[in-house]
Amino acid sequence: MKLLPIIYLGYMFVSIFFLFLYLLLFMNNKKTLFDSPKTRKKYKVSVLIPAYNEKDTIKETINAVFGIDYPLKEVIIINDGSTDNTKKIVGELLKKYPKLKLINKKNTGKGDSLNRGIEIAKGELFVVVDADSYPAKDSFKKLVGFFDNEKVGAATCIFIPRNNKTFFEKLQDVEYHVIAFTRKLLGYVDAIYVTPGPLAMYRKSVLEEIGGFDSKNMTEDIEIAWRLTKAGYRREMCLDTYATTTVPKKFKPWYRQRRRWNMGGLQCILKYKKDFFKRGMLGFFILPFFTLQLFLGLVGLSIFFYLLIRRIISNYLLITYSIPVGVPILTMDSVFVTPSFLNYLGIILFVAGFVFTILILSVMKSGVLKRQSMFNFLAYFLIYLSTYPFIMITAIYNFIKKNYTWG
Amino acid sequence: MIKNQKYIFLYALLLTIVVFNLGIFMGYMLEASRVGKINTFYLNAEMQLLDQITQKGALEVLDLNCDLLVEENIKFGDNIFQEALQIQKYEEANRINSEIIFQHKRFDLLRTLFWINSITIKQKCNSQYHNVVYFYKYNEPSLEQESKQRFFSNLLREIKEKRGDQVMLIPIAADNDLPSINLLVEKYGINELPVILIDEKTKVTEIKSMEELEKYLV
């Protein structure tokens, strides 16, 4: 057996495993997917909103936070050295909202801003909200219940793109829902690997115990989830509430965002490399999962380019031989390809993955399935997901070059 | 309902192993059925060739109709050419079943035997058809050889379509380490692949124009 079919089979094995893992988690927990535990405790909740040049969105974010149906201890805006009107806009809202606080500091990054916020936050719990995200009214009420379990360090929810009109935004809408659902499923095996920036609630004492956010990491929300895992604290996911967030409208900012996510992931892998296969979900699932994604992406892309270049050269040579002699380059035989069993397996796997995705989107309460067309789903599967390895390559390149720009 | 959620990893792994192996098994069955078809092709071809050889033997001792023998030979040549194309498709789609390689070798030997028989019939019956033997590299051809073989293959198909019965097209893999083929390769001084051997006289490795090749087929 040649090397390439073995590699393809390896990919198929991994894909089938994850498909079964998600399917079993889904079947095993379908009755509790949308549960959010009720609490009798009255947690004091602070809100931290780090902001860097957020003049377009900060006002609406603050209004959304104050519109939440849960009593808030305070809302702290950490102005991370904005050069636009962010400071002025927040300043104007200080009178309107007495619980609103503004900290101005030099631009040192999101992680450091959050640590400053933790230092002054008075709540037992604090919620990180991105300055371009808008929590649903019931979001805090649905999340606090998780913290009755002393082992819970963080909880998060679904994120729905606020702007989902264009084709590109709609693809991100599908992606955000798929990610949210799989995150919920991974939560059942304590394998949530990120508590994303748009909205995540944390237990303050736990964050203080583990040393706060890593100010050097480009994805402090991934890193903190890994550190919580390592320290033995659970991260929970709630499908019963949501926050809306602004997603990139154009390719370039989207690409930069994704590159940053990948670079942050690489930073985390390097930081926690000694924890590989050590006791706990970090060593046995999260780290191998991230590394496997990286490895499969790189190998897949290398094979793709190898085959592409080989095909280009081969066709070029064929053309140079054929044209002067007047021999056809394409024949009916070359059009009708006899499929190998790997082709059949690939199609079965694609259909299974596609059907499972439609199934999980159909149970989502946000009505994402109604907003989307079959064409969008196919484009998501065939085009959108195919871009991931390419972004990973550029992320690795930038990571090696130490080009840690936010985007 | 699985009570300990962590066991789900194990269940998923077990299910994956089962489904994956089932997939491999199905794949093996698919390829085995294709090998089975090739085997049927082979048995038919072998029977036809034996019939040809018997006819040729009879021709040597009895006064038989030569035209019928030539006609049968051409028909058989056409059949094995079509079968070669089908086998090539199966081979390209073959991934796990190595039996197809042995089938290929058997076909190479059969085609060689057909070629030798064809030479004899041509001489005995004083026929006008041309034996066009296409020697190609079967095992790991270089990118250049692969492209050239695609070109040669398309070219010979064009010639066969154009000239039909006048051309006996016999593709043979020259690098399968079969002693009889090795002997012929040595006899005709074939040092590079692919090569087209026309009427056991002319070796063509470079083709500049269709006319250049056709002049050997006049």
Written account of the structure:
With 407 residues, chain A is of the alpha/beta class. Chain A has a domain at 42-285: Spore Coat Polysaccharide Biosynthesis Protein SpsA, Chain A. Helix content of chain A is 54%, strand content 14%. Chain A has helices spanning 3-29, 58-66, 86-93, 110-120, 139-144, 167-187, 204-210, 220-230, 251-271, 281-325, 332-335, 341-363, 368-371, 374-384, 388-400, and strands spanning 45-51, 74-80, 100-105, 125-129, 133-135, 152-161, 199-203, 234-245. Chain A has an eight-stranded mixed beta sheet with strand order 3-2-1-4-7-6-8-5, with helices on both faces. The radius of gyration of chain A is 24 Å and the shape is globular. The two termini of chain A are 45 Å apart. By secondary structure, chain B is α+β, with helices and mostly antiparallel strands. Chain B has two domains: 8-127; 128-218, Glutaredoxin (3-Layer(aba) Sandwich), CATH 3.40.30.10. Chain B is 66% helix and 10% strand. Chain B contains six helices and four strands; from the N terminus they run αααβαβαββα. Chain B has a four-stranded mixed beta sheet with strand order 2-1-3-4, with helices on both faces. In chain B, α1 runs antiparallel to α2 (66-92). The radius of gyration of chain B is 22 Å and the shape is elongated. The model of chain B has no long low-confidence stretch (mean pLDDT 88). Chain A binds chain B through residues 1-2, 5, 9, 12-13, 16-18, 20-21, 24-25, 28-29, 188-189, 285, 310, 313-315, 317-318, 321-322, 324-329, 331, 333, 337-345, 348, and chain B through 1-2, 5-6, 8-9, 11-13, 15-16, 19-20, 23-24, 26-28, 30-31, 85, 89-90, 92-96, 98, 143-144, 146-148, 150-151, 154-155, 157-158, 207-210.
